[in-house]
Write the structure tokens for this entry.
Amino acid sequence: MFKKILIANRGEIACRVIRTARRMGIATVAVYSEADAEALHVRAADEAVAIGPAPSAESYLRIDRIVEACRRTGAEAVHPGYGFLSERAEFAASLHEAGVAFIGPSPAAIAAMGDKIESKKLAVAAGVSTVPGHLGVVGNPEHAARIARDIGYPVMLKASAGGGGKGMRIARSDAELREGFASARNEARASFGDDRVFIEKYIEEPRHIEIQLVGDRHGNIVHLGERECSIQRRHQKVVEEAPSPFLDDVTRAAMGAQAVALARAVGYQSAGTVEFIVDRDRNFYFLEMNTRLQVEHPVTECVTGLDLVELMIRIAAGEELPFGQDDVRLEGWAIEARVYAEDPERNFLPSIGRLVRYRPPDGDGIRVDTGVYEGAEITLYYDPMIAKLVAAGRDRAEATGRLQNALDAFAISGVRHNVAFLAAITASERFAAGQLSTDFIGQEFPHGFAPPTEPVAADRVLLVAAALAETRLHAAEVARDGAVCEPAERQLIVLLDKRAHAATLRAEGAAFLVETGGGSTLAATDWRPGQPVMHLRVEDRIATVQIERLPGRAFRLVHRGVIREARVLTPRAAELLQMMPAKQPVDTSRLVLSPMPGLLTQVIVAEGQEVKAGEALVVVEAMKMENVLRAERDGHIAKLRARPGDSLAVDQVILELE
Ligand code: ADP
Ligand code: ADP
Ligand code: MG
């Protein structure tokens, strides 16, 4: 076994690999860029080597510097994590040349699966079912249109060198195809330096289901069941689970057999994933093979009891797989939610800054894989993932319940994040019913993520939480002022997003009987002012609410993805408030502001032009993503205040609407 390995990655995955290596008694070497000198993976490793400036191209993607770091530290093997150099055959080959083992498959297997057109040809030859399409480069829009009519609309244009959901376009007509062809090609050239594009049938309302594999250097290949990753945004996974609520044993076995056949065809040795798209009738089609550890691998670890990183290390060291196909048992259910520094209320724009507060949840069946800590900085240089939250249980309902409680308790501040959005996804009836498809987010949140306008079940908990919070605050003040006893009964008016509810609180031992128009509830909490999370007992259930103090007797509360502003008043104060003239909120919808620091790459509209709500105005590039800013209402462009090529500060005015 290796004595020392180097991890050629950063963030949560570097930390996760280090954890297993440490358990195996293997020393670890981290590499880091200038932006990561204080990062968690650097602190977690036994040694760390600086490899260059912040941009990945000058550090984490520098093969020469990583090989040199191995030489200097005497690392015998390298784990590449995911992203960065993990799927670069040239990297694996350079390590081999330097006498260092690559903890992954052979350069030949990486190369064979690295190209979508070539890997599909290989799949067809291995008897794997593929999406109907044209297995060749499409030269021009006319060629594209001929093929599309042949396959039948809708079709999908894809970059052959693509990955990470980039370079893909759906087309439902010749016109859309022409437009999509140009943009898919441009995006492919910009992202991958390779503009080859191909076409395949677009499968409607599909599910993304993938098979996890492991192969050793002795010819054994075993599959570890599936993961369903249908909850996606822009073709990027957001929530993943194992097993899939859709597969039956026959389909699972058939998909597993095809995945193993493909792996065998390329002599696959390590952990890898074969991705399939599955239609409503459980027909499945090969999409691509990822020749690395995947982001969502923890759900497979939860249901198999295996450590995939350990297996990868043992395989790279030449050991034989310690089990065969018949020994693999899937037990229980696991769901992963990706926590990102992005703002779901502002079209998922990436957010950067310091994690002023970072309190991950814990509890039965909860696993948090993270690369950050409280006080750490989220920069614009790398992927904005903060953590992966994984919940396991005996069945899907138990795993979902645990995930929901953990999301309710996950306290993050300092950057915008998607925790409430993840909670809203997992709280939906459709999620509970397991009716997933890659259109899930688009259909469930057609207007983006916003608090429900009508009262919902979570509001009862929020109402009780607000009343208790005010009462605890009041009690703390009374105690400070030297008074000894609290009144046994208090009348309050709770404004939840401006909807008024009268509440009476009556002390019952350490608990309160909260009476409102909606009925009476026995509730208790030991929350103290200043804590970011309130656990409260509501009847015989424990609920968790995120709580943030706002000016006045007001709070921002979040529970099950429902975000409300609550204001708690005495009846007298409520009466006085009613007599006050309503304050007119400042109208900022007139100004289009840059939601983050970035580069203005495109101005789509011209001064004087009429625009409709939802229409694209400008494109801002930040964190490697193109963000289209849209009009929030109808109007006309009064003034452009920035030009393409301008660097934008956060909240800088880009244009004025009238
Ligand atoms: P998965 O199926 O494992 O989610 P993705 O295609 O989403 O795979 O990519 C995995 C991770 O690798 C993502 O976090 C993504 O940001 C990162 N990634 C993808 N391509 C690159 C790249 N060229 N350089 C750096 N990171 C990348
Ligand atoms: P990437 O390399 O970016 O991961 P994939 O080929 O794996 O690219 O596709 C990513 C996602 O795009 C899939 O999970 C699925 O949601 C969608 N997708 C890809 N191909 C098709 C298709 N033919 N029909 C419908 N959706 C597709
Ligand atoms: Mg993929």
